[in-house]
Design goal:
Pfam families: SBP_bac_11 (PF13531), VWA (PF00092). Residues 393-584 form the VWFA domain. Residues 334-373 are annotated as: Disordered. This is von Willebrand factor type A domain-containing protein. InterPro entries: VWF_A, vWFA_dom_sf. It is a single chain. 39% of the residues lie in helices and 17% in strands. The chain is α/β, with parallel strands linked by helices and 592 residues long. The protein has three domains: 47-150 and 298-333, Periplasmic binding protein-like II (D-Maltodextrin-Binding Protein, domain 2, 3-Layer(aba) Sandwich), CATH 3.40.190; 154-287, 3-Layer(aba) Sandwich (D-Maltodextrin-Binding Protein, domain 2); 390-586, Rossmann fold (3-Layer(aba) Sandwich), CATH 3.40.50.410. The strands form three sheets. Strands 2-3-1-4-11-5 form a six-stranded mixed beta sheet. A six-stranded mixed beta sheet has the order 14-13-12-15-16-17, with helices on both faces. Helix 19 links the parallel strand 16 and strand 17. Helix 17 (484-497) packs parallel to helix 18 (523-533) and helix 18 packs parallel to helix 19 (553-563). The longest helix has 24 residues, at 17-40. The protein is globular. Residues 1-43 and 356-368 have low confidence and may be disordered.
């Protein structure tokens, strides 16, 4: 059974006595489920199965009610009786537990808590979690279904007076319109729930990213500037908890309160309905922007590794959750059916399009769910967000050995050094002024008998950005070899020397070869020194990005294993820009 405390949604925040009551309720639910389980184990049952289901909190009551009715009616597969324990669980918490179990890495998602375990069946709020786990390295992670059982469109929530000023509900608005509002001189105060931890936030970020890309050619300075501006504007009012973000909307009709409150945020339709159900002084309008963002689709995922009898029982439970009666249960939770239609009693917000008239909430043509998602777009959005909105201290170390002169066929004849510098420049534009960054180059005998040279010292970007641009422009390959080990040890000592609390202190080293320095230390000596220097109280993350076919991952892994980092090796140097962002985004968040 997966048990988690709290929920990032406003209406189920657990505080004080409420937390005690919720904990007591959970005990009652578990006890009740166990009682029903034992009652089933009567003379007619030759076997017993208990399914553990973890579901997003807004859909959990509907799933539990349907499962309870199924059990009451005699849930069984053949002669085997079934009991079901449904627990409300944060999708990000279960994702962290699954990632830990399958060796995956999710940008912006902390480590799993010590008590979190994976369920038999998982109903997260979005298929994006399944896609992120797969693309994050969970190669053995293949849920049995992943088919949607409910839907909630992602909308832009605005206080009604703010929405009315830009034409709601009559005017049809686009994400490009919103981007212009966010980046204008009198910017709309937009916020977001951390998109690396929240599916609605991620959906909004993907739509806003697409709108930014449309402002110019992909990767153009105009598109990059629009994207960075939007990210930083959103980051100003970001929150890791959805109820905290909702609390920032104006709570008074006073014009000053409206002007100073949150003006827009990507949330689910269900969030808006639930918020307005509390009768706030200023209701929220739900804006269904075009193109339609990726909705929350609540996939029913039977996790790999469960026993065959449980898998059979899960298939029957899935059939129960496809019935008209379950759609009606969803309506009571302000959720739609998987086709975008609401059950009995469902009341869509004002301005919502009708499914019969091309409702933006309706599923796309094709298979739907995870099959329609672009893993690369999701990964790029999450890594870019992580880099652009978090602070750090980093020493960038670039290989300038002779082999870096080699031309890259897939980069219009640019050299490996030029491709590396271009990737570093692109990353530099994403870092805000709170970052501290320095630049070294290395080869052999680059500075007398020393293999490395400081180009720019580690300083805050607020006064160091131009120096770094000039330093990167000066990077030119030498005729030397690769003095990797001496350089790594010196870089580690340098970063440790002025270690800064409150930031992830890191080294990112680019190289296209193995250590080739007859006068330098050995790998054994390097590892011995790193073990001595390593201080758990002052961690330094080492990331090595290997370029080309001459790099040995086996040589790099022991170095990063000691320092808590990771090596990335690509045969195609044109991929290092993407890898650089992924590497920076892996900075470890706090455990969940």
């Amino acid at each position: 059974m997966v048990t988690v405390s709290g929920r990032h949604r406003m209406r189920s925040s657990l505080r004080g006595a409420g937390a005690v009551a919720a904990a007591t309720a959970l005990v009652v639910v578990v006890a009740g489920s166990w009682y029903g389980y034992r009652q089933l184990a009567g003379p007619s049952c030759s076997g017993r199965i208990q399914l553990a289901v973890a579901a997003a909190s807004e859909i959990a009551p509907a799933v539990k009610a349907a499962a309870d009715q199924w059990v009451k009616d005699g849930a069984a597969v053949g002669d085997t009786c079934i009991a079901v324990n449904v627990t409300a669980a944060e999708s990000v918490d279960v994702a962290a537990a699954v990632a830990s179990k399958h060796g995956a890495t999710l940008a912006g998602v902390g480590q799993a808590s010590g008590t979190a375990v994976t369920p038999d069946i998982w109903v997260p709020d979005s298929s994006t979690w399944l896609v992120r786990l797969k693309s994050g390295g969970a190669t053995a992670f293949a849920p049995a279904t992943g088919t949607s059982i409910a839907r909630s469109p992602v909308v832009v929530a605005m206080p009604e007076p703010v929405a009315a000023r830009i034409g709601w509900p009559e005017k049809k608005l686009t994400w490009t319109d919103l981007l212009a509002q966010v980046n204008s001189s009198k910017a709309l105060r937009a916020g977001i729930v951390e998109p690396t931890q929240d599916a609605a936030g991620l959906s909004g970020l993907l739509s806003l990213s697409a709108a930014a890309s449309s402002t110019g050619a992909a990767g153009s300075p105009q598109a990059q500037e629009a994207m960075i501006g939007a990210l930083r504007a959103l980051a100003t009012n970001r929150s890791s908890l959805r109820q905290d973000l909702l609390a920032r909307f104006p709570r008074s009709s006073d014009p000053t309160a409206i002007a100073n409150g949150l003006g827009a945020a990507a949330l689910s339709e269900e969030d808006v309905i639930a918020y307005n159900g509390t009768k706030p002084p200023i209701p929220l309008a739900a804006l269904y922007l075009e193109p339609s963002p990726m909705p929350l689709d609540y996939p029913f995922a039977v996790l790999p590794g469960i026993e065959p009898a449980k898998a059979s029982a899960a298939k029957v439970l899935f059939d129960v959750l496809k019935t008209p009666s379950f759609r009606n249960r969803l309506a009571a939770q302000a959720l739609r059916g998987p086709d975008g239609n609401g059950g009995d009693g469902f009341q869509a917000p004002r301005g919502a399009p009708s499914p019969a008239n091309g409702d933006s909430s309706a599923p796309p043509t094709g298979q739907g769910g995870a099959a329609d998602l672009d893993p690369s777009a999701i990964q790029k959005a999450t890594t870019t967000w992580s880099v652009a909105t978090q602070s750090g201290r980093m020493l960038c170390v670039i290989d300038v050995s002779g082999s870096m002169k080699q031309k890259v066929a897939t980069a219009n004849g640019a050299t490996r050094a030029q491709v590396t510098v271009a990737a570093a420049n692109q990353g530099l534009e994403l870092f805000d002024d709170s970052w501290s960054i320095g630049l070294w180059t290395f080869s052999t005998n680059l500075n007398g008998s020393q293999d490395y040279r400081e180009v720019v010292p580690i300083k805050p970007l607020s006064g160091n950005r131009n120096a770094l641009r000039q330093g990167l422009a000066s990077v030119k390959p030498s005729n030397g070899n690769t003095g990797l080990y001496d350089t790594m040890l010196a870089a580690y000592r340098k970063v440790q020397e002025d270690w800064e609390p409150g930031k992830v202190n890191s080294i990112v080293l680019f190289t296209d070869g193995k250590n080739d320095d007859d006068n330098g230390i050995s790998q054994k000596e390097l590892l011995t020194q790193l073990k001595k220097l390593r201080d758990p109280e002052q961690p330094i993350q080492v990331i090595i990005i290997g370029i080309g076919n001459d790099v040995s991952q086996a040589e790099l892994e022991p170095i990063t294993a000691i320092t808590g980092g990771r090596p990335f090796v690509t045969a195609d140097p044109t991929k290092i820009g993407e890898i650089f962002l992924q590497a920076i985004a892996l900075r470890p968040p706090a455990p969940r």
